[in-house]
Each structure stands twice: as C-alpha cells, then as structure tokens.
Amino acid sequence: MSVLGRVEGHILTPLGFVHGYLEHEAGRVLRIEGDSVSESRVRLEALAIVLPGFIDLHVHGGGGHDIMEGGESAQSVARSHVKHGTTAMLATTMTAPMSEIEAAMRGVGAVCRTRAPGAARLLGVHLEGPYINSGKLGAQPNFAKPAHLDELMALHALAPIRLITLAPELPGNLELIAPLRAAGFQVQIGHTLGTYEDGVAALAEGAGGFTHLFNAMTGMHHREPGMVGAALAHAKYSEIIPDLLHAHPGAIRVALRAIPCLFCVTDSTAAAGMPDGEYSLGRHRVTKCMGGVRLADGTLAGSTLTMDQALRNLVGLGLEIEDASRRVSTYAAEYLGLDDRGHLAPGTQADFVVMDRDLQLQRVVVEGEEIDLA
Questions:
Q1: Which residues form the active site (predicted)?
Q2: pLDDT for res 44
Q3: What angle do helix axes 173-182 and 149-158 make, rounded to 10 degrees?
Q4: Domain check: are 37 and 119 in the same one?
C-alpha cells in the first residue's frame, strides 16, 4: 500500500531554499510547498534543513567491509554509508587479477538488482582499474594493463558498469574512449602519467572527468601543465576527495574556481566508520590512524571520509550550503545522466537527508524508506 510521508523545514529545491514541507509517496516526491527563504535565514534558524540525498561515485568499502570481498560485502557497504546520508553510490573495484574483479562484480550485480531495506541504492560499478598506469598506482596493486572492449563488456554482463577510470596514455586506451562512450559508459582519467596533451586528447575523445583530482596523476608546472593542468584548464566535471588529507584546502579552492561541476567522493575504505586498526583494501592491508588510511610505506590508501563530513568540510572552507549540496549530490547525478536523483522536485526519487543547523544528520530517507540511524 502506498504511504504518504511528509517532512517540514527549510527544503533545498533547484530554485533555492523554501520554508515549507515536502510530501512523498511510493518512493517519489509528490509535492513541495513553501515560501522562498534566504540561506542566511536557513543558517540562523534551528529548523530542519532538507537536502537531496548524497551521491558517492567512488566507494571501496565501509563498516569493516571491502567491495573486493565479493558476496554480500557490497550490501554491507551500502548499509554502512546510508547512515551518513549517502542514498546512492557506485561500488568501486580495485586493480587485481581478472578472476578477483569478476568475483567482486558478481557480488555487486546481485545487490544492484534489488535495493535491500536499510541500504543505499547501489547504482552500479566504478571500475577503477585495471586499465591504469603501473607508474601511478597509488594504493592499487600492480595488475595494471591496457583496456579491451570485449573484456569490459564481459564484466558489464556481471554487474552494470557506470564509470571507468583509465590512463589515456596506455596503448589503445585513448582510441577506446569514444567506443566506450557510445556504449553508454562514462569514462574518466586517473592513475595516469599522461601529459597535459594526453588529457586534452582524452577529453576530446569523450572522457567526462578526472578521478580524485590531484592524486595519482601528473602535477601542474608552469612549463609542463601535466594532467592536473588539463583538468583545471578544460574539465567541466571532476572528482575530489575533500577529507583535507588528499588535497590541501588551498588546492581544493583552486579546483572550485576552475572546474564548474567539481563534485565530492569519499574514496572510502573498509575503515570508514570503524575504529583505528588494520583493514582490507583489495589485496592490501591498510592501517587506519590519525584520521587517515595508509599502506605500510605511508602511501595514502583511500579514506575514512563519509559524505556528511564532506559537506561539512566544504561549508568549513566557505561554501554556502546550497553550493556544497550540489557538490555532494547534484553534479554527480548529472555526470551519470540521472535526472531523478541529486535534486528535490515533484517526480524525483524521495532521497533526502534532514540536518540541523550544525549540519549534523537527523534523518535519512532513501526512495521513501526512513533509515534507522541507530
């Protein structure tokens, strides 16, 4: 039976905040009614702040579970992140032998078919490798290789691939971007030793953005702009990890000025939401301590970031709530071509979070289901 739900407060719509109410039924927003209100009033009043649910396109794990474990791990990860306001996400793979990637994809595919109660919607897979440069692995195991369309389509048959990270300078990768886009995949540039020119060429072929901007790519120098320079000069979309460890606040501000639709990802690992200690990240063992996750040699290995903290970090850098909300919801949805998520309007998915004026989560609703945050 259809159940009508209602939330009152300051509601962020595509036209700005309104002070009123949102009603939803059968998992969809039915109506939003209210009067326009300034963001300064939103911050001053101790009323509920209703924002679109967060969308995270780069999630390796959470709550002690790693996507590469396969089986039920993806469902456990989705249940962990929903408690931090993530209502939709991509399960992200690691570079690994193909047999291990296939096993992970089978587990993800089962979870994608039906959203479990109490979990975020798993939209599909972000394939972060193995089509990356072995010289810019970051925390990825060294099983990198050039991409092959037949291999990608076989993986896609196991679970829906929505996003592919690749290094355009590897043999054949640049030429594969246009066919991948024609087949419906979004492609982004990452884990790359490519030049500025490689980046520009990849964007011209249809690559849509960049994987965790600044990390695992050639940096910018005024005579060799590198892949970072290509992103800052030409990109409309790019991921960034705003945990304040992967990128200095000053670098984040540069990216915000240069890239119109810069959006946040967590790049979170099994250690997200867990105490300090050792956890799995694909074939690696990583250690969580002092707010970060690292390999034994000190290399940053994903993060412990959650999307509610990402929002707070952006606001702490000086962004208005409306702008920060777009960067944890709207732009990621646009990037994947989703027109019914990432914003709140009649007919969209009833995915939203309710926060207090300190931007602490009070409620999370996914497709009309109230999530137990305990």
A1: 267 (proton donor/acceptor)
A2: 85
A3: 40
A4: no
